[in-house]
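Example (one chain per record):
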Amino acid sequence: MKLSYISTLVVAILSSFFSGVEAAPTPEADQDLSASQGHSPIKLKLYVRSMENIDINGYAIGGRKFSDTIDYLFLGRAGAQPMVYNPSTHQLYNDERGYRMYFNTLSPFVQLANYAPIPEEVFWTRFDTQQTLVLYDKKDGFYACMNTGDSAGYSKTQYELMYYPNGGQNRQCVTVTVYGVPYY
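Predicted structure:
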């Protein structure tokens, strides 16, 4: 009787742990974001892959509220935050709040912020043929980091997406590639 109760309890715990976990889709050849230049905005979600830490491959990227105007981006197993990519303006944004939160960096922090990029500082985002996010014509520079010093302390238990285009990241960072997957 005790064994049956324990196995039922284990199954219940594992089921609750995995219930909200979304399997990360992989880019498909027929979903080429690079071929969409000059077309309509595309709905997509962002994920990461890493050669240094395969445990985080496929982790979703989502915002954690820092203020009413800024969300810092973190990695997790739960669903990715919906984004919109506009290939004609090279802007990536989220509009779930009824206003746009633009993807940008305030190095080294990667964030969504509700101010539009100024024309001289267009946040040139695009995607290559592997759906890899290219920022300022660089694929490199993205890291998943722990203990970044974020004021809410989220990075003590969760990887934060950071951008170090010239290196200088801390020891608790691993190199990641950010990729987009369209959804409908």
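Caption: The longest strand covers residues 42-49.
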